[in-house]
Known about the structure:
The structure is a single chain. With about 260 residues, the protein is mainly α. The protein contains 11 helices and no strands. It has helices at about 5-35, 45-65, 70-90, 90-100, 110-125, 130-140, 150-160, 165-175, 185-195, 200-210, 220-230. α4 (about 90-100) packs antiparallel against α5 and α7 packs antiparallel against α8.
Amino acid sequence: xxxxxxxxxxxxxxxxxxxxxxxxxxxxxxxxxxxxxxxxxxxxxxxxxxxxxxxxxxxxxxxxxxxxxxxxxxxxxxxxxxxxxxxxxxxxxxxxxxxxxxxxxxxxxxxxxxxxxxxxxxxxxxxxxxxxxxxxxxxxxxxxxxxxxxxxxxxxxxxxxxxxxxxxxxxxxxxxxxxxxxxxxxxxxxxxxxxxxxxxxxxxxxxxxxxxxxxxxxxxxxxxxxxxxxxxxxxxxxxxxxxxxxxxxxxxxxxxxxxxxxxx
Length: 264
């Protein structure tokens, strides 16, 4: 047998094996990303593709024990650049996603002005999570001057779209009398709205107020425990959106850990 043909055959077989293992470990991602690679992407489609890559990277870190920091940083930068491109093209959700990425920066302080600007732009474009986030900036004075009336404005904007985090924080402002006249009854009504949507902080606020007899409610530890024992599926943490699961299939924006919503 001709040695050149023999070694060529071995080399081709080796490449075939490598190709097989690459497809085996990346098929889910390749199939999920197929549509994104074969058409011109709008700003929102580019955001969705960036989110897909983000969750693929998360899954890779779980699967691969040898996933080093250099690889992690390189892939994270690619995702950030994709979101940046989508944001520059006008995707409100990409702007929100960018701020979520910036929250995780080690040198966070230098990103705060940019985070506020992006959040405000996304909020003005109608994104409810961004409206809630802008409200928190004014509520806490994070990167801007504290302004409870502006905080209330943005919380209400978010709440009008069914955002439970905004609802809860309207309750906080009324309970503490920040920017509005203190009113336990109105505060409680907002906490209940948020809690019934599965919002953890709304449920916790109801627990605390019943447990200690605050906000115009009677002290009732039994009633308090009913609120604490409610299942919940949403916290203040805003995930990268859209959310993809381990198989890179889209799932709920805020994964619900309790499907039995009748308990509310």
